[in-house]
Design a protein that fits this description.
heterodimer; A: mainly beta; 6-stranded mixed sheet; 11 strands; 57% strand; globular; B: 7-stranded mixed sheet; 4-stranded antiparallel sheet
């Protein structure tokens, strides 16, 4: 059974810092991996989708990498801003619907 | 412009009083999913429909039921809500259940409060 772990559970950084969020999964037989953002009390916003054949995807200040063989992904956020404060969830898709991690709660302090 | 719509966004019900949450989609996707997300937890899949085929997760309580009368709509019925059922309920759609080249699109969620 696929399990997704995200470390750290919470992170607080000063504005302007670059940061990395980590995601690991136990079954490397995945088709794709997705990073989501969730604001408090809100639904999910898809940030980046990486296919299993890809190594990374970029969108603005966000860069996600995937090492499928080792079961790891990272989300890199450059020049963090207070508006980036949210929970970031990682989810993988294999022969089942998306399986999620618990997320990393990010606070960017002005 | 909205692709996956959930109503209501906030629902308050009383302990034991049946409640129905609604999801609709404009994507014409074959698959519709319901996830439950409790505070600081990962979204947990309750069940999904592939067209009219219903697929229940093994650990989904019997208290939770679902209906899909047509391609566009899917409902989540909670027969006798308990305090532990208070959560965010997320609806999602996709073309297929698994496989690459496809993604799940999520609605804004319905936050359920049980008094």
């Amino acid at each position: 059974k696929q399990e997704v772990t995200q470390i750290p559970a919470a992170l607080s950084v000063p504005e302007g810092e670059n940061l990395v969020l980590n995601c690991s999964f136990t079954d490397s037989a995945i088709y794709n991996l997705q990073w989501f953002r969730q604001d408090p009390g809100k639904g999910l916003t898809s940030l980046l989708l990486i296919q299993s054949s890809q190594r990374e995807q970029t969108s603005g200040r966000l860069n996600a990498s995937l090492d499928k063989s080792s079961g790891r992904s990272t989300l890199y956020i450059a020049a963090s801003q207070p508006g980036d404060s949210a929970t970031y969830l990682c989810a993988v898709r294999g022969n089942t619907p998306l399986v999620f991690g618990k997320g990393t709660r990010l606070s960017v302090i002005a | 412009d909205a692709m996956v719509i959930q109503n209501p966004r906030y629902q308050v019900t009383q302990f034991g009083k049946p409640v129905t949450l609604s999801c609709s989609q404009t994507l014409n996707h074959n698959v519709m999913y319901w996830y439950q997300q409790k505070s600081s937890q990962a979204p947990k899949l309750l069940f999904h429909y592939y067209d009219k085929d219903f697929n229940n997760e093994a650990d989904t309580p019997d208290n939770f039921q679902s209906r899909r009368p047509n391609t566009s709509f899917c409902f989540l019925d909670i027969r006798s809500p308990g305090l532990g059922d208070a959560a965010m309920y997320l609806c999602a759609t996709s073309r297929v259940v698994s496989g690459g080249g496809d993604t799940q699109y999520f609605g804004p969620g319905t936050r359920l409060t049980v008094l």
